[in-house]
């Protein structure tokens, strides 16, 4: 493993960013948090685009031992895999365990994230006159919560006996369960797993890391001008 120095995390108070604050806490790595005010368009500056041409957080940046250039990684699942491999934790190297972790990580990154991101939009930002879209994404969220619940019925963690980056990626998104309109008692195994995860000191620390930022983001969203909102929703 090459030592990582001056770790910097670009983020906001969001589930994709919390995956990384939890992972860094699990790995006991200190880092500087650089808040990106996405409601003011800070993700669209040319400096930011050079870090992530997809204009989204999180981004991980650090100095690698023995290298002059900075390492920059975007996409939360790619960051989790990179960190897991750097530290040799939360992603087994042996098969089939490795593929088992990666498939559940992809369920989060390629299914939960995009579908529930849309459900958040049609639940909290654009509910009015969007019954069809809202119902479609709520059905899909229900299907995914059921999938996780069924998987967690026969193992303590998503990929089996050991916690992995699949759990770290899924936990912050799973916390939307009730806000997405579902009852906790319909998802007993998922909720027991949430409890298990929430008792880990690193999960507590990782969630707390963006608590102050949450208030700043909420105020920024509430006070965003119509132009800011349109830019954020990709309407301009
Ligand atoms: N697939 C990306 C999604 C990243 C993403 O959607 N980030 C949100 C915050 S959670 C963001 O930067 N939103 C600002 C925008 O879309 O302009 C990942 O997992 O990193």
Structural description of this entry:
This protein is an alpha+beta fold and 236 residues long. The chain has two domains: 4-89 and 206-232, Glutaredoxin (3-Layer(aba) Sandwich); 97-199, Up-down Bundle (Glutathione S-transferase Yfyf (Class Pi), Chain A, domain 2), CATH 1.20.1050. It contains ten helices and four strands. Strands 2-1-3-4 form a four-stranded mixed sheet. Strand 3 (59-64) and strand 4 (70-74) form a beta hairpin. Helix 4 (97-125) packs antiparallel against helix 5, helix 4 packs parallel to helix 6 (165-174) and helix 5 (131-151) packs across helix 7. It is globular and about 55 Å long. The termini are far apart. The model has no long low-confidence stretch (mean pLDDT 96). Bound molecules: glutathione (GSH). Glutathione binds next to helix 3 and helix 4.
Question: How would the global form be characterised?
Answer: globular
Give the proportion of residues in helices: 40-55%
| Weakly predicted, low-confidence segments | none
CATH fold category name of the largest domain: Glutaredoxin
Structural topology:
Layout: E1 4-11, H1 15-26, E2 32-35, H2 46-51, E3 59-64, E4 70-74, H3 76-87, H4 97-125, H5 131-151, H6 165-174, H7 188-198, H8 201-208, H9 211-222, H10 226-232
Parallel strand pairs: 1-2
Antiparallel strand pairs: 1-3, 3-4
Helix pairs in contact: 1-3, 1-6, 1-8, 4-5, 4-6, 5-7
Bound molecules: glutathione (GSH).
Features:
236 residues; alpha+beta; Glutaredoxin; Glutathione S-transferase Yfyf (Class Pi), Chain A, domain 2; 2 domains; 4-stranded mixed sheet; binds glutathione
């Amino acid at each position: 493993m090459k030592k990582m120095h001056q770790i910097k995390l670009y983020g906001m108070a969001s589930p994709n960013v919390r995956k990384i604050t939890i992972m860094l806490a699990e790995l006991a790595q200190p880092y500087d948090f650089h808040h990106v005010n996405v409601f003011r368009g800070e993700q669209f500056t040319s400096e930011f685009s050079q870090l992530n041409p997809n204009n989204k957080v999180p981004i991980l940046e650090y100095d690698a031992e023995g290298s002059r250039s900075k390492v920059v990684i975007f996409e939360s699942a790619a960051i989790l895999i990179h960190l897991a491999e750097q530290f040799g934790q939360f992603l087994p190297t042996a098969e089939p365990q490795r593929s088992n972790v990666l498939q559940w990580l992809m369920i989060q990154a390629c299914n939960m994230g995009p579908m529930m991101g849309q459900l958040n939009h049609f639940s909290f930002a654009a509910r009015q006159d969007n019954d069809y879209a809202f119902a479609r994404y709520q059905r899909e969220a229900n299907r995914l919560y059921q999938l996780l619940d069924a998987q967690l019925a026969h193992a303590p963690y998503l990929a089996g006996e050991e916690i992995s980056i699949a759990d770290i990626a899924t936990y912050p998104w799973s916390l939307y369960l009730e806000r997405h309109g579902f009852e906790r008692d319909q998802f007993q195994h998922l909720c027991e797993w949430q409890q298990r995860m929430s008792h880990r000191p690193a999960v507590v620390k990782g969630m707390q890391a963006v608590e102050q930022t949450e208030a700043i983001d909420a105020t920024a969203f509430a006070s965003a001008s119509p132009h800011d909102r349109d830019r954020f929703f990709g309407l301009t």
